[in-house]
Amino acid sequence: MNTLPLQTACRPCFFSLTDTKKIKGPHHEYGQAVQQYFHRLFPHRRWQVFRDPIGTPLSVDVEILYPTEEEPFYLLHTMGMSAAPMRYPSGTFAAANESYSELCLILPARWPFRRERGLSLNDKAAWPIWLLMELGRFPHAHDVWMGYGFLLPNREKPESFAEDTALSGVVIVQFEGQLGGVKMPDGTAVELLMPILLYKEEMDLCSDIGIDSLVDAVLDECGGSFLLNKDRPNIALEDDTGP
After folding, report:
1. Residue 62 located in a structural domain
2. CB count in 10 Å sphere of residue 123
3. How high is the pLDDT of residue 18?
């Protein structure tokens, strides 16, 4: 177990997120409860928490649970996004209600983290951790609600998340069951959301086929797996003309 401060020397900036005035986070205990929940779901794993050095408008830490032989994948999740609520869009049936969420992401065990001296946020391969941190701040910085089907490009262009991938946007999905949410001691439900990373052409395709069809097509391309594959084929560019 390690709790590490984040280093900012190689900090990438995602989603056109600019620092804003710090907001109050009245429920910091929710992030800690989510951490304990993931430790129960995935026991006996080595873990690290990377503290958010930015903290505006809200501090969002990221914990990483390391792979095991039985479960060969990294599990990453935010801690702090749920410290403050998101409000449902005005005009909806739930306009008066609030939503609390944290993000999670699954990386394959072969993800190219540096291993000889442990994981560092200065590693080029650590960009998914930065991505979760800034994505978790986004709805608070821009006062928007994030839920299933929320589509977000990385900046206006959009730009690739890293040098070794052309993925440049996300769509938010949510599991059913244990990975869908956590009930807090006070009865509040904290939803667990997952970003699926997309290519620009796939984001464009979404307007034609819809969120559900897009997500299904991406999952089919990945063999039904939710593990992040930074090199997967672009479903919007595949030849579907047939023989």
Report:
1. yes
2. 15
3. 64
- Please name the residue ranges forming H helices in 95-193: 127-142
- Residue 18 in any domain: the answer is no
Phi, psi values for residue 126, rounded to 5°: -85, 5
Q: Does residue 157 sit within a domain? A: no
Does residue 2 sit in helix, strand or coil?
strand
- Specify the DSSP class assigned to residue 67: P
Instruction: State which residues form the domain around 184.
Output: 2-10+23-146+172-195+225-232
- Which residues partner with 50 through β-bridges? 4, 62
Kind and range of the H or E run holding 193 = strand 189-198
What single-letter amino acid sits at 201?
E
Total domain count for the chain? 1
pLDDT band at 9 (very low <50, low <70, confident <90, very high): very low
The pLDDT tens digits of the residues spanning 197-241 come to 999 999 999 989 999 999 999 999 999 999 999 999 999 997 553
Mean pLDDT of 84-92: 78
Q: Which of 1-5, 32-36, 80-84, 149-153 has the lowest mean pLDDT?
A: 1-5
The answer to whether position 133 is within a domain reads yes
Rounded to whole angstroms, how far apart are CA atoms 73 and 60? 22
Q: How many residues does the chain have?
A: 243
Could you tell me what percentage of the chain is helix, strand and coil, using 3-state DSSP and rounding each to the nearest 5?
A: 25, 25, 50
* Cβ atoms within 10 Å, residue 192: 22
Quick one: pLDDT at residue 241? Answer: 35
- Write the burial class of residue 142 (CB in 10 Å: 0-12 exposed, 13-18 middle, 19+ buried): middle
